[in-house]
């Protein structure tokens, strides 16, 4: 039994001093959220901190309570108990002596930790002052033992080290504790665009026509007092523990997924637009006529998880070239434009009044093209015994394209 206790004690990597033991662990504040419960060296949006202090011997007799202090700095500085940013969080009472020792367990949530730092306002998620000037802030915690008369321990502020989570990912320093934590409670968002005939677009209820997508891990902009601080967006798969996934859900057929970082490992941390062609999915994964909704689920280096739901919806893959079809002849003098006939072997009968060619877009299979087409060369239309004007786009009154026709002479004209 003694051997088992010693193994357990070592696993917690507590800081042991003469007369007292301090153990600090990052814990999961909400088991129902998606954030990782503990990432070595980080405090994320789903974390609390639990500090357990045990005193024995003379310390258990002399001290009955303690103070907790905290210091936040930017990433270019090291938190310290003599730093200008140092602040006390409050006093905490030890349990009565039992078996010659006293214990106190303290749970610190995010609101308590940042209470003295207006830049990190809990009411404004994107608030951060110059603490974010060089990246995510750092913070450390200390304790000070107090007598019943509130006299302070002569040893002063005692530093708290934070245990690593080697079960999730190995440490770089081959140590089991960290002197401070990186404060990162913000999630990284992804911007997604689809390649249409005229380039990448970020629209819903639209079409795309190429077997590729483009995404960007957006940088994080944090503001305070009129100043903006930008931190580059980065994701992590935490040594394969989790995946960062783009999901394309069609209205019919199997769901398509793309795991960021499987093709190019540095795509998890790369800035700017990244284009994904068909090969990472499958050969030509998108099917003509299918409508897709897009979503994603990401994890950053701190273990913050983000799954915003659908970010692009009702986008249809359309890789069939639309065709402008001359469907009839319209126009009768001063009266409003009206449809007066259909094509019969390419022939139109006209008189002296203004006339127009009515044009509708159709898919290559003959179905109507339901999406806006901007223009096409009118010179591609062949016409005899007449000349063509400029293409006129649809309006509220006319839901079709048309081209004015100027007769060269009365008689029969032929258009194709």
CATH class of the largest domain: Mainly Beta
Instruction: Give the biggest beta sheet.
Output: 6 strands, mixed
Query: Which fold name is given in CATH as the topology of the largest domain?
Result: Coagulation Factor XIII, Chain A, domain 1
Percent strand equals: 35-45%
Uncertain runs are 1-14, 332-341, 343-351
* CATH level-two architecture of the largest domain: Distorted Sandwich
Number of helices: 3
Chain-wise SSE layout:
Layout: H1 2-12, E1 15-17, E2 20-28, E3 42-43, E4 47-56, H2 57-62, E5 65-73, E6 87-93, E7 101-108, H3 110-113, E8 138-146, E9 158-160, E10 162-163, E11 177-178, E12 181-183, E13 190-196, E14 199-201, E15 206-208, E16 212-217, E17 220-224, E18 227-231, E19 245-250, E20 256-259, E21 274-277, E22 291-299, E23 305-306, E24 310-317, E25 323-330, E26 347-349, E27 355-362, E28 383-384, E29 386-388, E30 401-407, E31 412-415
Parallel strand pairs: 3-12, 15-24
Antiparallel strand pairs: 1-2, 2-4, 4-7, 5-6, 5-8, 8-9, 8-12, 10-11, 13-14, 13-16, 16-21, 17-18, 19-20, 19-22, 22-23, 22-24, 25-27, 26-31, 27-30, 28-31, 29-30
Account of the 3D structure:
By secondary structure, the chain is mainly beta. The protein folds into 3 domains: 2-183, Coagulation Factor XIII, Chain A, domain 1, CATH 2.70.50; 190-317, Immunoglobulin-like (Sandwich); 323-415, no CATH class. It is built from 3 helices and 31 strands. The model is unreliable at 1-14, 332-341 and 343-351 (pLDDT under 50).
